[in-house]
Amino acid sequence: MESIRRTVVMLIVAAAAFYALPAASGQSESSPEAYGKTNGPGYANVREAPYSAACDGKTDDTQAFQKALDNVGTAGGGIVFVPTGNYMIKTHLSILTGTSLVGVGRAPMTYEPKSPGSTLLAVEGAGSTEGTPFITLQGPNSTIEGVTVFYPEQVLSEKPVPYPWTVRGGGGYNVSIINVLLVNPYQAVDFATNQSARHYVRGLYAQPLFKGIWVDQCYDIGRLKDVHFWPFWTQDKRIVDFTTTKGKTFIFQRTDWEVVEDIFCWGYEVGIEFSASKYGAMNGQMTDINLDNVNVGLDVRVTQPYAVHVSNLNIANAGAGTDHVAIWGRKSDKGAELSVRGASFWGFIKQVLRWENAGTISLSDSRLIPWNIERPMMEILAGHALIHDNSFQPYHQGYIEDYWYHDPVPAHDGVISVRIGPGVDNVMIHGNQLRGHKIVNEAGEKALLTDNQP
Questions:
Q1: Which residues 6+ apart lie within 8 Å of 278 measured at CB?
Q2: Mind spelling out the 3-state secondary structure of the chain?
Q3: How far, in Å, CA of 91 to CA of 102, rounded?
Q4: How many C-beta neighbours within 10 Å does residue 191 have?
Q5: What is the pLDDT of residues 105-154, one digit of tens each?
Q6: Digit-coded pLDDT (tens) for 140-166
Q7: What's the pLDDT at 114?
Q8: Better-scored residue on pLDDT, 407 or 429
């Protein structure tokens, strides 16, 4: 009899444990079902009491959101869940340590007013880039996930309305942005104003109008993955003209061994800027980098001596801007160290490479197919360069018709594949297919040219 009692008790305990688990069939741990639709330590739903967000797109829901974030944060962290709807946030939000603001998106969503997902409407700070960011990830371990942010009062104009940053790291480590859509931010993500060690971005889609992501003061390996910046909110010519003359998508300053993977932008003045703040510059590695219709692809000013390593790079221009330079090593005594391997350059590019920097450029295993060369395809005027195993295939000036279907037209006199200026320190160029184009060496013995196929 005693053994039967023990067996019954064990079965009851096992059953209780089983039914206490969150459902496993495709449910996210952040869904209300996983928490029994009850508020409590570690979980809050902004639509439920005591928060009771209106979710009508008009009533100010800031207090409801912040109260939920504060309660969860001070209880030790957890999830503040945002059901589908439009939520007017008239001021700003702060996400505390260990707390996640989580919407319904499980991938970056397409913005649809009639099917908004978990959309936050931002209006504070119009007219200035200064001021409090819309969302501050205080950290450590604070996250925004599965939500959309839309600025309903932004205008279609030659001068769109400036706003403060949409998301800023508050100084804590391990702050994260996951599967987020920022529809029309003026400035999207700031991981620079405060320290941002081990920041993590995965699945960020946006149409930033002025600045995309700015990274500085990161002393321990930040990660940016699956970022897509393109004109989906509007392709109004006034906005496109603004972004192609003033917009910068990625700005990297002091960050140690930053990892950047699978990023895309279309229609900006600068694709990626490498520069220095008072805290220093960047080193790190990048792969699967796509910069389309950019005036300057890689704007290279300063890096750490340990270099930035780029692989699988695509840079194109469809007419944006006036410079049309794929990689531009700007004049700088501090120097930049850049290594690019496996790149494709094409479109209305005036120069694939212009290097005026005291540092080193290495470019290899790449295809160069610009359509409107106005200068040498590569011009090395300072510093150091290693150029090898590339294929030079320029089109004639102005040749466009049927470019998708035909090989480049034959080379003609006057096209210079590489010009080496007299002010370089040392240059090595070897193993390239020149396709009948010239290398002009004005540096004498400071340049070593070998095994290039005419």
A1: none
A2: CHHHHHHHHHHHHHHHHHHHCCCCCCCCCCCHHHHCCCCECCEEECCCCCCCCCCCCCCECHHHHHHHHHHHHHCCCEEEECCCEEEEECCCEEECCCEEEECCCCCCCCCCCCCCCEEEEECCCCCCCCCCCCEEECCCCCEEECCEEECCCCCCCCCCCCCCEEEEECCCCCCEEEEEEECCCCEEEEECCCCCCCCEEEEEEECCCCEEEEECCECCCCEEEEEEECCCCCCCHHHHHHHHHHCEEEEECCEEEEEEEEEEEEEEEEEEEECCECCECEEEEEEEEEEEEEEEEEEECCCCCCCEEEEEEEEEECCCCCCCEEEEECCCCCCCEEEEEEEEEEECCCEEEEECCCCEEEEECCEEEECCCCCCCEEECCCEEEEECCEECCCCCCCCCCCCCCCCCCCCCCCEEEEECCCCCEEEEECCECCCCEEEECCHHHEEEECCEC
A3: 19
A4: 27
A5: 999 998 888 889 999 999 999 999 999 999 999 989 999 999 999 999 99
A6: 999 999 999 999 999 999 999 999 999
A7: 86
A8: 429
